[in-house]
Design goal:
The complex is a heterodimer. In chain A, helix 4 packs across helix 5, helix 4 runs parallel beside helix 6 and helix 5 crosses helix 6. Chain A is α/β, with parallel strands linked by helices. Chain A has a six-stranded mixed beta sheet with strand order 6-7-8-3-9-10, with helices on both faces. Chain A is globular and about 70 Å long. Chain A contains twelve helices and ten strands. Chain A has two domains: about 180 residues, Rossmann fold, CATH 3.40.50; about 40 residues, no CATH class. Chain B is mainly α. Chain B folds into two domains: about 160 residues, no CATH class; about 90 residues, no CATH class. Helix content of chain B is about 70%, strand content about 5%. Chain B has ten helices and three strands, in the order αααααβββααααα. In chain B, helix 2 runs parallel beside helix 10 and helix 3 packs parallel to helix 6. The longest helix of chain B is centred in the C-terminal third of the chain and has 32 residues. Chain B starts with a helix and ends in a 7-residue tail after the last helix. Classes of the chains: A alpha/beta, B mainly alpha. At the A-B interface, helix 2, helix 3, helix 4 and helix 5 of A face helix 1, helix 8 and helix 9 of B.
Chain lengths: ~280, ~270
C-alpha cells in the first residue's frame, strides 16, 4: 500500500526578524500513520520547522502542504489546520495555562466549539489514554515534570488531531519516563492511526520507535531514510553533533577493530542479538 | 503562600460547594465588620477557627501560626490608633511628658484600637477559612458563574498559574547565584539581586510569548474558554446554616446595642 503524505514541505525557508536563517530549502514528506523523527543538534531548526507545520510561522519562501493542499493563512483555515495538526511543546510549563488539569485539557475541544457533553467525553478519553485520570483534581503546579508532560499531550489529543507533532517529547524525563512516553505515543499512533512527528536528540530511541527519520543541521535536511539507512551514514551523522545509537557504535567497533564479520548491520538490541546469533551459527 | 494553596487541596471541605463556602466567609466577614464589637469579632474568630480546624481538618497549630502572620502589621497599626498627642494631660489614662506636650493613651483611643484589632483579626480568620478550604480554581469558577468580567477572571487564573512558575524560576536562580557566592557580601548581594530582577523580567516576557504561541496552536481565539470539572451539586439547604448563623449574630448585636448598656463598649 502506498501511503499518502499527510504533511509535505517544498523549498521551505524561514528567516527570523533578526536575520537568522532558521530553515533553508527544506523538503520533507511526513507519511500518514507513521512515526517520523526529526534529528538534529541544538539550534538545527527543528522547532522552527514544527511551527511552520501548523501555520504559527509563515514561510519566508516555499510552501507547506497538508494532505497535498498548500496551507492557507486566513484565520478560518488556520483554526481548521490547528485542529488537525496538534503540537506538544517541549516545556509543559509554557503550554499548560490553567492551574486545573481538567480545565487545561478541555481548552482545545472548547475552542473547536464542540458541545459540552462531547468536550467532557474527549477530556475523559484523553486522560484515560495518557494515564492521568487520577490527576483530575490536582493542581498543575503540584505535578511532576513527567505528569505535566502527559497533561500537555492529553490537551492536544483531546482535539483528536490527525498529526501529532512533539517537540523533544523525552527531554528532561528519567529513563523510565522516556520509555513510558514513547510507548504511549506508539500505542496512540497505532490505535488511532495517527501520524506522529517528533524532534529529538535522544538517538537510541529513534530505531526503536520511529519508522522514518530526517537529520537536520543549520536549517537544512542533510539525511533522510529509515533509521537504519540514516545511521549507516556514520560520517555525516557525526559531523552534525549527533552520534550513532550505542548498539550501532558497538557493532561498528566489533567489525572494524575486532574483525568480526557481520552480514547485516544492527541499530537496536534485538537486531544485534539476531546478527550475533547468525554469526555464532555460521562459525559452527 | 504555596503552603496555603497546598492546604486548600488537602482540606476536608475541598469538595463542598465553593459558593457555600464563599458566602459563609464573606457574609460572616461583613457582619463582623458591621458589628464593630469585640465580642462578635471573637465569636467570628472562634467560629471560623472551628470550621477550619474541625470541619476542614487543618491543624490547629497551623491555623494559629497563620493568624500570627498579620500580627506585626496589626499591632503597628493599632498602636498608631491608640496613641494620642495632646497638650492636656487630663484626657489621658496614661501618658508621658514630652517638653510641653503629652504622648499617651486615651480611653477612646484604647477602645478604638481594641475594636480595630479584633475586627481585623475576625476578618482575617474569615479569609483564612476560605483560602484554607477552597482552591483558587473553585473561587474563579464562582466568579465566572457570577458573571464577573471575563478578562479579569482570565487574568486572575493566569497570574495564579504562573506565580508558581515564576517563584520556581526565581528560586532556582537564587540557588544558582548562591552557589557561586552571589550573596556573600553587601555589594555582591545588590549586584546579584539586580541581575536576578532583570533576568526574571526578560524570562517572564519570553514565557508570555511562548505561552501565546502554545495557546495559538490549540486554537486560541482571544478567550480562554474551558469546561470545569463537574462541581458538587447545588443545594440551597447548604446556605441555611450560613444565613442562620449570621442572623443570630446580627440579632445578638442588635440586642447588645439595645439592652447591653455599658457592655456596648465591648
Amino acid at each position: 500500500m502506498v501511503k499518502d503524505d499527510i504533511l509535505e514541505t517544498q523549498g521551505l525557508s524561514y528567516t527570523y526578524a533578526d536575520g537568522t536563517n532558521a530553515l533553508r530549502q527544506v523538503n520533507l514528506n511526513i507519511k500518514t500513520g507513521e512515526i517520523t523523527a526529526v534529528l538534529g543538534g541544538n539550534g538545527a531548526g527543528k522547532s522552527t520547522l514544527f511551527l511552520n507545520f501548523n501555520g504559527i510561522l509563515k514561510p519566508s519562501s516555499g510552501q507547506v502542504f497538508f494532505h497535498g493542499k498548500p496551507l492557507e493563512y486566513s484565520h478560518r483555515s488556520l483554526q481548521e489546520l490547528r485542529r488537525k495538526v496538534g503540537i506538544v511543546f517541549q516545556d509543559p510549563d509554557t503550554q499548560l495555562f490553567s492551574a486545573s488539569v481538567y480545565q487545561d485539557i478541555s481548552f482545545g475541544p472548547v475552542n473547536m466549539k464542540l458541545p459540552e457533553k462531547e468536550v467532557r467525553i474527549r477530556v475523559a478519553e484523553a486522560m484515560e489514554r495518557t494515564g492521568i485520570s487520577d490527576l483530575k483534581n490536582k493542581a498543575t503546579h503540584n505535578l511532576s515534570f513527567g505528569q505535566k508532560k502527559r497533561v500537555a499531550i492529553a490537551g492536544v489529543l483531546a482535539m483528536k488531531p490527525e498529526v501529532l507533532v512533539l517537540d523533544e517529547p523525552t527531554a528532561g524525563l528519567d529513563p523510565m519516563g522516556v520509555s513510558e512516553i514513547m510507548k504511549l505515543l506508539k500505542e496512540t499512533q497505532q490505535e488511532l492511526g495517527l501520524s506522529v512527528v517528533i524532534s529529538t536528540h535522544d538517538i537510541d530511541l529513534v530505531p526503536l520507535y520511529c519508522d522514518y527519520a530526517y537529520v537536520m543541521d543549520k536549517g537544512e535536511i542533510i539525511l533522510k531514510g529509515s533509521p537504519k539507512e540514516v545511521f549507516s551514514e556514520k560520517k555525516a551523522i557525526r559531523s552534525v553533533h549527533l552520534r550513532l545509537p550505542r548498539i550501532a557504535h558497538l557493532m561498528e567497533i566489533l567489525k572494524d577493530k575486532d574483525d568480526f564479520e557481520f552480514r547485516e548491520t544492527a541499530v537496536t538490541i534485538s537486531e544485534a542479538r539476531k546478527v550475533l546469533k547468525d554469526w555464532k551459527n555460521s562459525r559452527i | 503562600m504555596i503552603n496555603i494553596d497546598h492546604l486548600a487541596y488537602t482540606s476536608k471541605l475541598k469538595n463542598t460547594d465553593p459558593r457555600q463556602k464563599m458566602l459563609f466567609a464573606l457574609l460572616t466577614m461583613g457582619v463582623c465588620l458591621w458589628a464593630d464589637s469585640v465580642v462578635v469579632s471573637i465569636l467570628v474568630l472562634l467560629i471560623m477557627g472551628w470550621a477550619t480546624v474541625c470541619q476542614g481538618g487543618t491543624r490547629f497549630s497551623l491555623f494559629c501560626k497563620l493568624l500570627m502572620v498579620p500580627m506585626s502589621f496589626l499591632i503597628l497599626g493599632v498602636v498608631a490608633v491608640a496613641v494620642d498627642f495632646s497638650g492636656n494631660e487630663l484626657i489621658f489614662i496614661y501618658s508621658v511628658a514630652l517638653d510641653k506636650m503629652y504622648l499617651g493613651v486615651t480611653q477612646a483611643g484604647l477602645q478604638n484600637a481594641l475594636h480595630l484589632f479584633f475586627k481585623a483579626l475576625g476578618a482575617v480568620a474569615c479569609l483564612y477559612y476560605l483560602s484554607l478550604s477552597t482552591p483558587m480554581i473553585d473561587v474563579l469558577a464562582v466568579f465566572r458563574r457570577l458573571k464577573m468580567p471575563k478578562l479579569l477572571v482570565e487574568m486572575m487564573g493566569l497570574i495564579y498559574r504562573f506565580i508558581f512558575v515564576f517563584l520556581e524560576t526565581a528560586d532556582n536562580m537564587v540557588t544558582a547565584q548562591n552557589s557561586r557566592l552571589g550573596y556573600s557580601g553587601l555589594s555582591a548581594g545588590y549586584r546579584s539581586l539586580a541581575a536576578l530582577m532583570s533576568t526574571l523580567f526578560i524570562r517572564a516576557y519570553k514565557r508570555a510569548d511562548e505561552l501565546y504561541t502554545a495557546l495559538e496552536a490549540r486554537g486560541y481565539d482571544g478567550e480562554l474558554n474551558v469546561v470545569e470539572e463537574t462541581s458538587p451539586p447545588y443545594k440551597w439547604t447548604g446556605f441555611l446554616q450560613t444565613v442562620g448563623l449570621n442572623g443570630l449574630l446580627v440579632i445578638f448585636v442588635l440586642w447588645m446595642k439595645e439592652y447591653g448598656g455599658g457592655v456596648v463598649f465591648w
